[in-house]
Structure formats: structure tokens, C-alpha cells
Here is the input.
Amino acid sequence: MSDNTVTVSGHTISGVPGRFVLDARTNHLITDSRFGPGESVQAGELFLASLVSCAMANIESTATEAGYPVTGIQVSARHTRGVVDPTRYEDTRITVRIQGVDASAAEELAARFTETCPIYNTVRRGTGIELEVFAE
Here is the structure.
């Protein structure tokens, strides 16, 4: 397997319909179906979490490399399940707040994220995605 390949596997838990264990390398995560117990993170939330994580990692790394004095990063993401077609999300919105830099630097950092994150670009090319950036 190449370094470009990532694998996550999962299995059900006997006696608990809608609850699953995901395995990524040596990490394990309990998840729920949206029809399951509803106590653990669900697939759509994991999808958003991957966007949020990629944004923060990318912005932090780029800021460090470029010498920007970033003092904090907050990212949130949301999507809306389709009403007419519930098999897809109608929209995805990411909000990025970067402290310690001006608007120009925040836009530059966000642009680097959108140019290089494979998760963001997969979504953008497939269904469209919207990004909001705030300098604080």
C-alpha cells in the first residue's frame, strides 16, 4: 500500500443496532447511525470533522512556514441534507476565524487551505462548497 492510501475500517457491535466501531491505524472510534442510539458522532459529522481538521492543520502549518503570528484558529462546518434528494447534502459551509493576522493574511491562509486540501477539493468539485473567512 502506498503512502497516499488511507484505510479506515469498521464493524458492528453485537446487540447494539446502529452503533459501530471505526478503526484507523491503531485508533478506534465509536460512531452511531443517524437511526441508531444517537449518542456518538454520526457519519455526516465525521465528514464535517474531516473538513474542519484539514482546515486547521493546513492553516496552522502554512502560518508557521510563512511566519504569520497566528494566535488562534477556529473552524466550524455545517451542511444541509437534501429535502428532495436526501442522498446528498445540498450545501456545505465552512467558517474560518483566524486570530493574530489581518484580513489579507487570513484570506491568503484560507486560499492555501482551499488549494491543497484533498477533502475540500473533493467536495468542491463534486457538490460545491462555500468558505467564509474572518480575521480577528
Strands lie at 9-12, 19-24, 27-32, 41-42, 72-81, 89-99, 130-135. Helices lie at 43-66, 103-116, 118-126. The CA atoms of residues 1 and 95 lie 35 Å apart. The chain has a mean pLDDT of 93.
